[in-house]
Specification:
The chain is built from five helices and 17 strands. It is an alpha+beta fold. It has two domains: 176 residues, Sandwich (Jelly Rolls), CATH 2.60.120; 42 residues, DNA Excision Repair, Uvrb, Chain A (Irregular).
Length: 227
């Protein structure tokens, strides 16, 4: 399941993040890549010890958890602290699959990467190329979203960032271990939750059908969730 979520960040928050990133140092992105991925990865990242990183990570995490659609799609148990990358002229990340296990550098906790997330920090008009191309069960999908929007997709997917040919592509990226390990079950819960929200908006929160469906939703989570 690939889900695009709008308006994670406001225009002012995006401006503040870009200002902070403009003063930061950038490292070779291969520093955080696995052995295979490092062969095809050409970009730059904010180093994990950068003084600007903690505040930016806190802001992004707060906004993600305040977004009902993002929470509904991911049902997060653990989130790896967001990182930030930049692709300029001819920089790219070839076809790869993300590592199955990541380690939180702040806590040492291991995290299973169920979902990958890219949060776009500048608009598509700012650069050419730099498309996130994802191969999933529905074929190959190319994603290039407005600033402040994000895409959430299975970490099992083969994906790549195509070469940037003009400007710079700036984004935040991170991984999620979901309470619902199985992607098919997550998709069922997301579809059910979105249907409940739509029904509640038209019929009211106390509509009998909406209440019954909400009970089914929570009972499925009780059956499937890992906590």
């Amino acid at each position: 399941m690939l889900v695009c979520v709008e308006d994670i960040l406001s225009a002012q928050e995006l401006s503040d993040i870009r200002d902070a990133l403009s003063t930061a140092e950038w490292d070779d992105g291969r520093a955080t890549a696995g052995a295979q991925s490092a062969q095809t990865k050409r970009n730059r990242q904010i180093p994990l010890n950068s003084p600007v990183l903690p505040d930016l990570q806190t802001l992004v995490l707060q906004r993600l958890m305040a977004n009902p659609t993002w929470v509904s799609a991911s049902l997060p148990l653990h989130i790896l602290p967001p990182m930030f990358n930049r692709y300029e002229q001819s920089e790219t990340f070839g076809v790869h699959v993300d590592n199955a296990i990541r380690v939180n550098p702040q806590t040492g906790q291991r995290l299973r990467t169920d979902l990958s997330c890219t949060l776009f920090l500048n608009d598509p008009d700012d650069y050419d190329g730099g498309d996130l191309v994802i191969e999933d069960n529905y074929g190959t999908q190319s994603v290039k979203l407005p600033a402040g929007h994000c895409v959430l997709y299975p970490s099992t997917s083969l994906h790549q960032v195509t070469p940037v040919t003009r400007g710079a592509r700036v984004a935040s990226f991170f991984w999620v271990q979901s309470m619902i390990r199985d992607g098919g079950q997550r998709e069922i819960l997301f579809d059910l939750d979105q249907s409940i929200q739509a029904l509640s908006a038209t019929a009211g929160l106390n509509d009998a059908t909406a209440v019954r469906l909400t009970g089914i939703y929570h009972n499925l989570i009780r059956q499937w969730a890992e906590t």
